[in-house]
Amino acid sequence: MSQNNWRLLPQPAEKTVRQLASQLNISPLTATIVAQKGYTTPEAAFGYLQPSIDQLHDPMQLHDMDKVLERLMTAAFEGEKIVVYGDYDLDGVTSTAVMVEALQVLGADVTAYIPNRFQDGYGPNLAAYQRLIEDGAQVIVTVDNGVSGHEAVAYAMSQGVDVIITDHHELAPTLPAAYAIIHPRHPESTYPFQDLSGVGVAFKVAQALLTDGAPVEDKSELPTELLDLVALGEIADMVSLTDENRTLVSWGLKQMAETPRPGVAALLKSAGQLPEQPIISETVSFKMAPRLNAVGRLGDAKLALDLLLTQSPDAATDMATQIEAINAQRQAIVEEVFGAAKQLALSATHANDQVLVVAGENWHQGILGIVASRLVELLHKPVIVLSQIDGTYKGSGRTFGDFDLYAFMGQYRELYTTFGGHASALGLAISPDKLTVLRTQLAEMAPIVLPEKAVTVNMMLPVAQLAPTTYDDIQLMEPFGTGNPQPAFGFETPQIEKAMAMGSTQQHVKLTLTNQIEAVGFNHPDWTAIVAQPQGVSFVATVGLNYFRGQARLQLLLADVSLPDMPENDAHKQFFAQVYKFIYAHQDLNFGQNLDKIAKQLQLTPKDLNIMIQVFIELGFVKIEAGYVKIIPNATQKSLTTSVTYQKFLANR
User: Fold this and answer.
1) What is the CATH number of domain 568-651?
2) What's the predicted TM-score (pTM) here?
């Protein structure tokens, strides 16, 4: 909790800011941030702020697109049975929807097959391909998968069924012997943009099909009715929102706001989206994607596909209600598995793991990626979470920072039954005996260098400069996400009129600044130290809106907090805050049995840790139950100095 990890971006030349602001009629704040993103001429900045048709590339530049166009046109016109073979995550579901709708426009005989996560696994499945071919499939088009499906693809091709692969995942050393492969990073491709997601690739195929491969001169010639699906999948898959992805997602979000398909409208309503709220990238990331992904995590993702494809508002409402219930179930399962995985992660067995691999028995396979992400957030290292089901460990990995986990774990490719993914996320299956070998090799590896967690700050901003128009200035740069981060501002010791903790366990903090603008920080109990001493605090925040009783108010969302330099005695409060945060996050960890290990992790002596817990007990912040330290909900805020134990602690330092 200091400014040492803040990275203030270089400030562009005043001349550049003035030129952008005057020629584009934007605020100096917007001009500054646009220039920081590398758009320093009015022409480049306009292209960034107003994504246009010029930023879309010719789909015919993709390797094999000419073959795919001819084959699918022939199949559509001759009534061949086409199966679109998708994937169960949102990128895969939207890819399937895009390809199905495009082929339907051509009058094709097309059906969709979404593999079941638990029965079919990821990617081409031989048994599934055999069933599809027995049912009459003559052409199989994969979307968001395929480049690792050698066996299934070879079988289909041997049966006279042409397989067209459209994918964006990392390419294996050898590619399947398919009829055609559409991939932005194909070794023989000259496509100018390599960061399309699965649905982005599917859309390029749809664009070629529905424009007959001709160059697109204006937006009206594009199949824009598919762009809402593209926005959903690309944001959910966290691909770079630059180049043509920025255009596709920008237009897709506008379509959702202006003419949403029935399924999108029903999902937004069930997710609590208010009519007056804008539909931005955050809407997809936090409201829509988790709900749609929950369907494939817990069962059959076809429900999510049906929701997106339905033209019936009534049917959409019914399906959205079902999805809401599934998502609630998913949240409960995540908490259960995360608790068990965290116990293992914090055990002595894994204390020195550079890349953490935790494995359990019969953990729900569909939510392991979420659990891995939460462990990464907790431990600041790459994490792989596996579950043994039917004698094989299967699971997901998530990286930390910009460490390429896929490339790193690819060194042990010969140990896996299946393996796929990209730099930041992967999936694998491995036998128990090979897992033992993997653990040994990971334990013997040379030290790896992980990036330090830095907080990027666009500029320091006086609170007096905040106004309702500030949010509008920032919204001009939407959609935010990978490759286009939301601007963050530093506030140096602003005047804080009021500071309070919120939440059932006092895990949130709210600051009221001099101009009545509120700054809130969620799930950071360590920040509640501000409540006792709010003046002298600096923080980094993004700018958002809070909707309450039909009114929208500017709100700052805390990204990092820096407490002021303190005398040594007062500085101890920071250590207490860190311990409180740890207790809050580990109420399912037995402190009585693990005190020495916990103290070591917190870089404290067991004696000091025990005293700190006693202080919290004395102040009524926590209680002990059979060795577990539990936060007392809605505890009254008290200063540490009111504790007799705390005073003795200071006296003995």
Assistant:
1) 1.10.10
2) 0.85
- Cis before 184 (ω within 30): no
Per residue in 476-521, pLDDT (tens digit) is 999 999 999 999 999 999 999 998 888 877 788 999 998 889 999 9
The answer to whether the beta carbons of residues 572 and 604 sit under 8 Å apart is no
Top-confidence residue, 162 or 537: 162
Looking at the chain, which residues constitute the CATH 2.40.50.460 domain(s)?
3-49+455-562
The confidence score (pLDDT) of residue 2 equals: 56
Beta carbons of 238 and 289 less than 8 angstroms apart? no
* Cβ contact 59:204 at 8 Å: yes
CATH 3.90.1640.30 domain locations along the chain: 59-259
Between CA 209 and CA 58 the distance in angstroms is: 12
The CATH architecture one would assign to domain 59-259 is: Alpha-Beta Complex (3.90)
More confident: 548 or 321: 321
Within 8 A by CB and 6+ apart from 485, the residues are 456
- The span from the CA of 197 to the CA of 567, in Å, is 52
User: Which CATH fold topology does 3-49+455-562 show?
Assistant: OB fold (Dihydrolipoamide Acetyltransferase, E2P) (2.40.50)
Q: Where in the chain is the domain with CATH 1.10.10?
A: 568-651
Is 455's pLDDT higher than 60? yes
Q: How deeply is 529 buried, as exposed, middle or buried, from its count of CB atoms within 10 A (0-12, 13-18, 19+)?
A: buried
Cα separations in angstroms, 377 against 79, 369, 528: 51, 13, 20
Average of pLDDT values for 30-56?
96
Contact present, 298 and 330 (Cβ < 8 Å): yes
pLDDT digit string, tens, across residues 560-602: 998 765 444 455 677 788 888 888 878 888 888 888 888 888 8
The residue type found at 68 is V
Taking a C-beta distance cutoff of 8 angstroms, is the pair 65, 208 a contact? yes
Mean predicted confidence (pLDDT) in 243-261: 96
Reported as type and span, the H/E element at residue 314 is helix 313-345
- Tell me which of 3.10.310.30, 3.30.70.1290, 3.40.50.720, 3.40.640.10 is the CATH number of domain 346-444: 3.10.310.30
Tracing tokens 């599917």 back to the chain, one arrives at: 202
